[in-house]
């Protein structure tokens, strides 16, 4: 149970008192900690395992603040405290992916005087400065690689598939420009949301131009930008640029972003119609059916349908 957050929301204020804390049996005694409103249970053995400020607090060398229910109060943000406890217990811990979260963890490690974790965070930040590009967009080489990227990422994902395989005369006159606009928008979104969303390029698929949006490892929506039109007895492919729809789906996918390492906000997903927020209300069969369902948007104008109808007759 060491390092496990029990409650992540703020707790009501209670009467407090300052005492010197000294446990009688550090190997078995559990301690209740309230760190900025996040509640943790852990052992005295974990807290005193390394020479840190927490060891000083729980070996009687420093005074601690407790409330009437016995919770020991620490006036710090509790977001990364679980990581601090895991490091104290195990001597190692996976670091966050984003630079911002590593910097936040570094600040907490410095406060609690966890020198080993301070060194690891500083080394990770130096490596990011030296080797990591500001924005990385993988170009997938197989569908298996795509599935692995999406399944192992803790971020929502946006994939643009484009493949201009036919000759130029098989497309309508504006298709080249619209294809370029789709690619340019993808690049701009990658720069804007690179720290929050995983962007993937696919140039090996069968579609000509298609956007896919993923949350929690599954496809949530798809925007297909191509349609078939008939003009002067010739069938042509039209590539559209549904800019507003792409922006809308990109913003929708941000609802699946992890909040403070606790996963997406299910209440927000439920309020906005997000599938993940409804999952706990569904039976097993309904859940399986929901997972197979994807919101697909095919861009097609009224004149396209008219041409298609005339061609069939």
From TrEMBL:
GO terms, molecular function: ubiquitin-protein transferase activity
Alphabetical list of PROSITE patterns matching this protein: BTB (PS50097)
Entry keyword set: Nucleus, Ubl conjugation pathway
GO biological process: negative regulation of Rho protein signal transduction; proteasome-mediated ubiquitin-dependent protein catabolic process; protein homooligomerization; protein ubiquitination
Gene3D superfamilies referenced in this protein's UniProt entry, alphabetically: Potassium Channel Kv1.1, Chain A (3.30.710.10)
Entry GO terms, CC: Cul3-RING ubiquitin ligase complex; nucleus
Pathway the protein acts in: Protein modification; protein ubiquitination
Limits of the BTB domain: 29-97
Principal cellular location given in the protein's record: nucleus
Domain of life: Eukaryota
InterPro entries in the cross-refs: BACURD1-3, BTB/POZ_dom, SKP1/BTB/POZ_sf, T1-type_BTB
Entry's localization field: Nucleus
Family: Belongs to the BACURD family.
Listed name of the protein: Potassium channel tetramerization domain containing 10
Organism: Cyanistes caeruleus
Lineage start: Eukaryota, Metazoa, Chordata, Craniata, Vertebrata
Gene that this polypeptide is encoded by: KCTD10
